[in-house]
Design a protein that fits this description.
The complex is a heterodimer of chains A (about 110) and B (about 110). Chain A is mostly beta strands and about 110 residues long. Chain A has strands at about 5, 10-15, 20-25, 30-35, 45-50, 55, 60-65, 70-75, 85-90, 95-100, 105-109. In chain A, strands 2, 4, 5, 9, 10 and 11 form a six-stranded mixed β-sheet that branches. A five-stranded antiparallel β-sheet of chain A has the order 1-3-8-7-6, with no helix packed on it. The N and C termini of chain A lie far apart (about 40 Å). The mean pLDDT of chain A is about 95. In chain B, strand 4 and strand 5 form a beta hairpin. The model of chain B has no long low-confidence stretch (mean pLDDT about 95). In chain B, the strands form two sheets. In chain B, strands 2, 4, 5, 6, 9, 10 and 11 form a seven-stranded mixed β-sheet that branches. Chain B is mostly beta strands. The chains are: A mainly beta (about 110), B mainly beta (about 110). The interface between A and B is medium-sized, with 23 and 20 residues.
Chain lengths: ~110, ~110
């Protein structure tokens, strides 16, 4: 079967670094997406990984290990505006996205 | 219009009523999707369309229907609403189907069925 899991909630301090983990199981894999979703708003695209390794994009980086079924999103120099939910999703063999429930990130001053 | 728009923003509906949620995109994307988002669950695909004139069922299609008469519009209809259809509904689009293209989301419709 297919499944995907990520922590429900995390708390971090402004200016710090936080890592949000995502694990998945699937027989067909076409990449791993991360989206950001502020409360009451639409999800917006952050990153896409299809090969193993780290992709860096400014303060945000995303890592993928296909053999371990594992990804993480790393947020550096946290700002209050980073308070949001972070959604992990993998694309299956039919090119459909299978979504985690999201990790709510709370940033404290 | 820039991107994807959805209407209405929110709606309270009596059980048994018919309701159509509207979705329009101006990016000339071929693929469009309808998701529902419920607390504690990931986004779940209801229906999708790879191109104008074609539609397909997602993970949770029961109680919903869609049409894709042209590239821009992808309405979602609840024929006879039930309380379990209370949710936030997101429409999304991507340039092509069957690819790893990024999906872009509309602002959502918050639907409450009483």
């Amino acid at each position: 079967g297919q499944n995907i899991d990520q922590p429900t909630e995390m708390t971090a301090t402004e200016g710090a670094i936080v890592q949000i983990n995502c694990t998945y199981q699937t027989s067909g894999f076409n990449g791993l997406f991360w989206y950001q979703q502020h409360a009451g708003e639409a999800p917006t695209f952050l990153s896409y990984n299809v090969l193993d390794g780290l992709e860096e994009k400014g303060r945000f980086s995303s890592f993928l290990s296909r053999s371990k079924g594992y990804s993480y999103l790393l947020l550096k120099e946290l700002q209050m505006k980073d308070s949001a939910s972070y959604l992990c999703a993998f694309m299956d063999s039919n090119y459909q996205l299978i979504w985690g429930a999201g990790t709510k990130l709370i940033i404290k001053p | 219009i820039a991107g994807i728009t959805q209407a209405p923003t929110s709606q309270i509906l009596a059980a048994g009523r018919r309701m159509t949620l509207r979705c329009t995109q101006d990016m000339r994307h071929n693929a469009m999707y309808w998701y529902r988002q419920d607390l504690g669950l990931g986004l779940r695909l209801i229906h999708y369309s790879n191109t104008a004139g074609t539609t397909g069922k997602g993970e949770v299609p029961d109680g919903y229907s869609v049409s894709r008469a042209n590239t821009d519009d992808f309405p979602l209809t609840l024929a006879s609403a039930v309380p379990s259809q209370t949710s936030v509904y997101f429409c999304a689009s991507s340039p092509t189907s069957g690819s790893t293209d990024t999906q872009y989301f509309g602002p959502g419709t918050r639907l409450t069925v009483l």
